[in-house]
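Problem: given the chain below (205 residues), write out its structure.
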Amino acid sequence: MSRPVIGLVGQVCAGKSAVAAAFQRRGAGVSAADRWVHELYGRDDVKAEVRSLCGGGVFDSGGEVDRRKLGTAVFADAGLLEALTRRVVYPRVGAALERETAAFRAATGPGAAPALVLDAPTLLEAGREPLCDRLLFVAAPRERRLAWALARRGWAPEELELRERHLLDEARKRARCHAVIENSGTLEDLDRRVAELWKAWVEES
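Solution.
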């Protein structure tokens, strides 16, 4: 398999961004769904849909979507979360990932990236698995994920658990992936594991 598209999924706050960065250092292109979501909420049409679904309480004083307030609102209401993801987020982010994947596959010549990583935590939930040649699951010990969630996002333990409950069953996701990285060691350990996958999936494919 030449020039694979690698779908990156896993537990919440398990270190997927660090894995994506390790692939990028080796020459892979990276398309991060979170970047597309961030840009999405700046669009007038999306802000209008969010206001219609969630009301004005999820906006800041400048009229922009406050993603923290939005997260609090939708993760407390399963129906609202379903409506937001299925009607607003998944179709638009999925279209962006499709465009990036198509552009990657069409690229030729010495400047073409040898692999593309789709850093998309809800890739399987959104039904975008067919975009990928390989799927990689990233996991980390619960204590480490709780510490990262607090330090980087200010989340309490119950918020992390709440978000995970709305994802596909972890065992099913692991079973659908071609490899698993257990991010329980150092960044050097993580990099060595990515190096192994790079050799198997990119250099020797």
